[in-house]
Amino acid sequence: MPAPKTPLLAVDCVVFDNESRVLMIRRKNAPFKGAYALPGGFVDIGETVEAAARRELREETAVRPGKLTLIGVYSDPRRDPRGHTCSVAFLAKVKRATATAGDDAASVAWVANPRRAKLAFDHHKIVADALRLLKQRG
Amino acid sequence: MPAPKTPLLAVDCVVFDNESRVLMIRRKNAPFKGAYALPGGFVDIGETVEAAARRELREETAVRPGKLTLIGVYSDPRRDPRGHTCSVAFLAKVKRATATAGDDAASVAWVANPRRAKLAFDHHKIVADALRLLKQRG
Predict the structure, then answer these.
(1) CB contact (8 A) between residue B49 and residue A73
(2) What is the pTM of this model?
(3) Which of A8, A28, A90, A96 has the highest count of CB atoms within 10 angstroms of its CB?
(4) Is the peptide bond before A65 cis (omega within 30 degrees of 0)?
(5) For the CA atoms of chain B, what is the radius of gyration?
């Protein structure tokens, strides 16, 4: 049997600091060049989604989170204009808001009002779901 | 940029009837031929994970569930001996336990004690997580 073709698999991270600001990158590349986006990227073969989330956070922002909590799975075929990519999103909290831009990120920022910012992809929806989860779990 | 290579994407469904029995199929093919497994399969490009879960349930068991609740994402590279496949697992409840075998399923059963059954892949872990979620949510 030939290997099935399935959507690409990615991760995104919603990291809150102790003032409920969200860690964002400014996208250096298309699509959504210049917009804010959640740190994240493709999952490597041989890597768990949790390991991919930690790796992407480290590479893009130098942030090393503690516990990761699953927010949801975002698989609308239209969410990425480059092709069908399914994203597994995680929530994390950090005490001190330090971060350094790397990799695909032009710059890193802690955004106080992510609902008002121009965000790439379906990241508004992911952030809204993360805020709801944060409220439930505290 | 060439398309990235990522793990294959699949779905699995834990469907409970009103006596907390779990809908299982007997696998007709390797790996784990003859073992019980959760209904599920690969996600098609252009299809959401929720749509894939409903399609696989329909094709394999003729069950049409109502609401789907996310249980978790299972991405250990060793969970499928054929290669790295990440599975998104959903919980559903049905009132009447009717089902008909189709497709990859040799037969369909409502299993009263899934913890004691021989299950394929990491389906013991998925069922344990589903039972925990069912207890929390009622």
Answers:
(1) yes
(2) 0.94
(3) A90
(4) no
(5) 14
For residue range B60-75, list pLDDT tens digits in order: 999 999 999 999 999 9
The residues pairing with B85 across neighbouring beta strands, listed in sequence order, are: B8
| Residue A114 to chain B, least CA–CA distance (Å) | 25
The confidence score (pLDDT) of residue B58 equals 93
CA distances in angstroms from B71 to B76, B126, B136, listed in the order given: 16, 8, 12
Among chain A residues, CA nearest to B88: A73
Contact B77 A47 (CB under 8 A): yes
- Candidates A45, A48, A86; nearest CB to B49: A86
Rounded to 5 degrees, φ, ψ at B120 are -75, 160
DSSP assigned state of B45: T
Q: Looking at residue A6, what DSSP letter applies?
A: -
What ipTM score was computed for the predicted complex, to two decimals?
Answer: 0.92
CB contact under 8 A, A77 and B50: no
Q: Of B95, B119, B71, which Cα lies nearest the Cα of B18?
A: B95
Facing B46 at nearest CB: one of A50, A84, A88: A84
Highest mean pLDDT among A105-109, B38-42, B60-64: B38-42
Query: Among residues 103-132 of chain A, which lie with CB inside 8 Å of chain B?
Result: none
